[in-house]
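[User] I have long wanted to understand how a fold can be written as tokens. Those tokens are not coordinates but codes from a learned vocabulary of shapes. Could you go through the record with me and say what the backbone is doing? Thank you; the sequence and its tokens follow:
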Amino acid sequence: MPVLLSIVLPVHGVERFLPRCLDSLLTDAPAGESRFEVIAVDDRSPDRCGAILDEYAARDPRLRVLHLAENQGLGGARTAALPETRGDYVWFVDSDDWVPEGTVAALLDELTAEAEREGRGEPPVDVLLTDFTHVYPDGGTEPNPWRHVLAGSPLEAGCTLAEHPALFRTVMSVWNKVFRREFLLGLGVSFGRGYYEDISVTYPALLAAGRLRHLDRPCYFYRRGRAGAITSTASAKHADAFAQYDAIFAFLDRPDRPGRPVPEALRTLVFERTVQQALTVYDTPGLVPVGLRPEFFRRIAEHFARHRPAGYRFPGGVRGVQYRLAARGARRAYAELRRTGRLPRELKRGARAVAPALRKGVRSSARFTAYNAFRRMPLDPGLAVYAAYWHRGYACSPAAIYEKAKELAPAIRGVWVVENRTQAATLPDGVPYVIVNTPAYLKAMATAKYFVNNVNFPRTMVKRPGTVHVQTQHGTPLKAMGMDLRDHPVAADGMDFDRLQEAVDRWDFLVASNPHTSEHFARAFPGRYEMLDTGYPRNDRLANATPAESAAMRERFGLAPGRTAVLYAPTHREARGGYVPLLDVRELARQLGPGFTLLVRTHYFHTGGPGDLTEQEGAAQIVDVSAHPTVEDLYLAADVLVTDYSSMMFDYAVLDRPIVVFAPDWEEYKRDRGVYFDLFEQPPGALTTDPQGLAAALLAGDPEPAARTEFRKRFCPWDDGGAAERVVRRVFPTTA
């Protein structure tokens, strides 16, 4: 069978990450699936990467390995691999990243469908753009921040760059783009050497493509903030970007340039995007070494002089002022503008747009200018900023604290940070909000007296003297956390412990759910904060729940009277990617029978789902509740919880309802993640390691009430319904 997709994998110094990447590519499709190949390039890696590649290749003929005699860098390794590829399409994957479950199979199906459409006379897709997910060192994830530019656009059906130039606002890397091989080779371009090596290929490819398409499916997990990544490393190599810019414009200037003609408007967009990137690199703390900053800024001015389009007009607002200063090489004035939001007196002429731009907001480096200007304002003693789960919405202990503060500290105005307007629409009526990176957000972050979050705010948002930061966390820890992960490299997976310590040093208060949590958090997150031994505010709702509220929740989820509702909620496993189907829920439904309903909730890190949930005659109903925003609703509706190692067991125990632990991979999880106590010795109820035992425990009703009683004594002593009030009275000025 012809090869449809060639995956090129440059490898250097990523021994810790490589097996996960290879597993996600090779084990995702059946062993007999021969429509794809992986060309891995051992770029003279100094660790065991070469040996790992050879071991995998010996087991799987779809993997071929090239061992380079000299280190070539990412660009050189990709260039070396291209002649070896045989696929109709080529995908460049970075070996410290990985792909979600089902990705390779989905891409093969998509490309097969494209080939069929091409056979019917439709133009081929030259570049297929995929969706992706950012993954941070602390385990947090962020959906593609540019998805709104792609989804629902002309790219869904296919178009050119001229028909959707907003594509230039998205990431220009190669890892989210699948290239038609013949088209790519015909461009006559090559990857650059050093940093930013892929833009000398992506820009020409997008500009020349006769048809671009977007596949609205997350196909890539991209690590952000990993130690050693170029986006977080100080190096003289950041100046390599200028050679890549030269290559892009050399392509545009070629008289024999292949592909579609490039309108001048697109050339201007290319120019502005490269200037914006260069200034962002210059502005980002810790990237360009101090001694090289003058030279780097001079190179930006040279870039202006060399590639500025004829008739170019500077944009308005702060960005336009910045571009003018960069074009003139006026580094001191540029620094003054960023530091204070104002120009030196002798350069104020022509800068009247600065103040309006601050009001309406700008992007990229201009955001820092606006933020720095807001930081010069006094702190607002009546303003508190709330956030939860990386700005996903209104949830967890911050939401409970917000509600109680409205009652007990009415002088404090709360505002929520959300990622986008879609998430803002999920907020309860009347809850004030700001959207990330808007002027309102920058002002709130610069002037708020109080911060309340269950994760960390971005480190670019400075904690000013006088600001009070309340860190609530989001679960009682069974698994190792924070600094304790130093002994568990699989779970740490590139975690930056210095960055974590910087975040902890900003905390003034850390909320603990129980004595067990206080003990381990104090070690895992060493700092000068005050530990609030209050219980988790989010559990107040469970402690105060009434039978009527539980009945209302059952009705909301359509649970018939007399049916036993089982909430199945497995946790995330760092050693694996995506949803981990260790339990066949359809088989469990058959064993339980029609008297049960299975509410299946996958972990919020996962992009997959529980699979086929179609009705089966004589079996339990299966309902996917993964997208339901409030887990406490599910707790109240459920008669029993089934989990493995999730902190949900500690919260659900507050309700004093049966809990069954399904732990088939306990030894593996304990080794990879690290744990604070032996779950087999102190379970919250029945514990089983096989599906048959799980079904038997659920059919038995409440088989281990004594275990639950002991578990509650240890982990729920502070859950009396008053945790939020205790936090509010300690942190905020209250009226009574």
